[in-house]
Amino acid sequence: GAGVSQSPSNKVTEKGKDVELRCDPISGHTALYWYRQRLGQGLEFLIYFQGNSAPDKSGLPSDRFSAERTGESVSTLTIQRTQQEDSAVYLCASSLAPGGYGYTFGSGTRLTVV
Amino acid sequence: RKEVEQDPGPFNVPEGATVAFNCTYSNSASQSFFWYRQDCRKEPKLLMSVYSSGNEDGRFTAQLNRASQYISLLIRDSKLSDSATYLCVVNMGPNDMRFGAGTRLTVKP
User: Fold this and answer.
1) Quick one: which of A6, A38, A98, B100 could link to A106 by a disulfide (CB 3.0–4.6 Å)?
2) Is A50's CB within 8 Å of B45's CB?
3) In this complex, which of B31, B49, B95 lies closest to A48 when CB atoms are compared?
4) pLDDT (tens digit, 9 = 90+) per residue, A33-78?
5) Dist CA A37 CA A64 (whole Å)
6) Higher pLDDT among residues A96 and A49, named by residue
């Protein structure tokens, strides 16, 4: 597609349930990032994928968070046993190459844990 | 010191005003710098890259000061539509682009 696509756009879940968020990057973009943005706050880096290299998971806040990406295609971010503090907008971005190029963001998934 | 630090604002300016934002960064080895714009409840969008020699795009001018480790964004003749949060982005390593928390700008008629 023309842009980065994320689904669902909104998700309300009960505390303790697992959720899966999806990101479909721009075709040909080798780098894919997940960020979290809590209400009124800045972006928080979660995880980074570059081609078939091992992902940089240094930003994942706990072992309840995991992400996968197959090659240079779709990525899924999974949050297990959701907590209220997980409520945020989860943004995915892709880039032609790591580091030196601008990112294109998807419109995000707004997660609300009740 | 935070890796990337911005004045959160808000900056409230009248239409036509000139406004400038600074962003400081901690890693002297950083090589890539960007300004992003984020509208309320929207995703960030790339506004402009920041080059060593400074660069201009219409009413927007970005500058880099490596010695003092800051970048700046200058907006001239501000418009109502410039109201947004402006995010500074700096690379901390090959795989690590860090976003500042953003500076909120409101342009008033």
Assistant:
1) A6
2) no
3) B95
4) 999 999 888 888 899 898 888 898 988 999 999 999 988 889 999 9
5) 17
6) A49
